[in-house]
């Protein structure tokens, strides 16, 4: 089972910031938080990841609470093309033949960006 | 930007026939994966592959399934005797492995339809 919980759906107005929450209260000290999205039935697309510090890239920002039990993905200026299912996943680092790095997907949050 | 490529994009096969799904992972990646997504359901892990052997497999990955890295570039998933319930999107993914926390990247999938 996924170690994260997300709201099943959210709406956002085009041009506004989309803030997608994720709870991961049982996260372990070495587990990273990864965000992916899936548009229609395309392959999951990597967005951003972090351990404890806030992260920003050209797609989004990731805010992780100090206790690391929750995080928020921020799309600063949502467009219609950002309509997708967004997945929050926690995963420990790869370690040879130890941790294999598999991703466990939940149901995610369906973000609908509206004009 | 390097990407994971999968062929074919759509495969239609008669029940009971063998099918091979092909993937070319990103060239410097060391960890390889297959996932599947039945229509309307979540993405499910099938198998991970590292150092030329299976490192982990799920309950779904039974004796009908096999994986192979026949050369330095391809990674294949074979289903020996397909069943109707094998109809799904199949995604290949790869991970570089260095530093342990780098993200997994996915192909756009093969839609497998069993008749």
Task: Describe this protein's structure.
The complex is a heterodimer of chains A (115) and B (115). Chain A has no helices and nine strands. With 115 residues, chain A is mostly beta strands. In chain B, strands 2, 4, 5, 6, 9, 10 and 11 form a seven-stranded mixed sheet that branches. Chain B has a four-stranded antiparallel sheet with strand order 1-3-8-7, with no helix packed on it. Classes of the chains: A mainly beta (115), B mainly beta (115).
Overall helicity of chain A: under 10%
Biggest β-sheet of chain A: count, sense, barrel?
5 strands, mixed
Assembly context of the chains:
heterodimer
Q: Biggest protein-protein interface?
A: A-B, 26 and 32 residues
Low-pLDDT residue intervals, each spanning 5 or more residues of chain A? none
| Backbone CA Rg of chain A | 14 Å
Give the DSSP E fraction of chain A (strand runs of 2 or more residues).
Answer: 35-45%
Q: How much strand of chain B?
A: over 45%
H and E order of chain A = EEEEEEEEE
What structural category do the secondary elements of chain A indicate? mainly beta
Helix and strand succession of chain B? EEEEEEEEEEE
End-to-end distance of chain B, in Å?
Answer: 37 Å
Please report the total strand number of chain A as a whole number. Answer: 9
Q: Topology of this structure?
A:
The complex is a heterodimer of chains A (115) and B (115).
Chain A: E1 9-13, E2 18-23, E3 32-38, E4 45-50, E5 55-56, E6 61-64, E7 70-75, E8 84-91, E9 109-114
Parallel strand pairs in A: 1-9
Antiparallel strand pairs in A: 2-7, 3-4, 3-8, 5-6, 6-7, 8-9
Chain B: E1 5-7, E2 10-13, E3 19-24, E4 31-37, E5 44-50, E6 53-57, E7 65-68, E8 75-79, E9 88-95, E10 105-106, E11 110-114
Parallel strand pairs in B: 2-11
Antiparallel strand pairs in B: 1-3, 3-8, 4-5, 4-9, 5-6, 7-8, 9-10, 9-11
């Amino acid at each position: 089972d996924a170690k994260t919980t997300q709201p099943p759906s959210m709406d956002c107005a085009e041009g506004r910031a989309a803030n997608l929450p994720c709870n991961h209260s049982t996260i372990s000290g070495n587990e990273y938080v990864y965000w992916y999205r899936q548009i229609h039935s395309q392959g999951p697309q990597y967005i951003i990841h972090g351990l404890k510090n806030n992260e920003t890239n050209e797609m989004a920002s990731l805010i992780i609470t100090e206790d690391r039990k929750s995080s928020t993905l921020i799309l600063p200026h949502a467009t219609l093309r950002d309509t997708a299912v967004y997945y929050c996943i926690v995963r420990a680092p790869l370690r040879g033949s130890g941790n294999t790095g598999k991703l466990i997907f939940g149901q995610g949050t369906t973000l609908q960006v509206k004009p | 930007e390097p990407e994971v490529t999968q062929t074919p994009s759509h495969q239609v096969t008669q029940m009971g026939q063998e099918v091979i799904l092909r993937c070319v992972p990103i060239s410097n990646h060391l960890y390889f994966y297959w996932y599947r997504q039945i229509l309307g359901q979540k993405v499910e892990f099938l198998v991970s592959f590292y150092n030329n052997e299976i490192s982990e497999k799920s309950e779904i990955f039974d004796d009908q399934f096999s994986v192979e890295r026949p050369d330095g570039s391809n990674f294949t998933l074979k289903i020996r005797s397909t069943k109707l319930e094998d109809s799904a999107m199949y995604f290949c993914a790869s991970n570089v492995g260095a530093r342990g926390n780098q993200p997994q990247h996915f192909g756009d999938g093969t839609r497998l339809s069993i008749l």
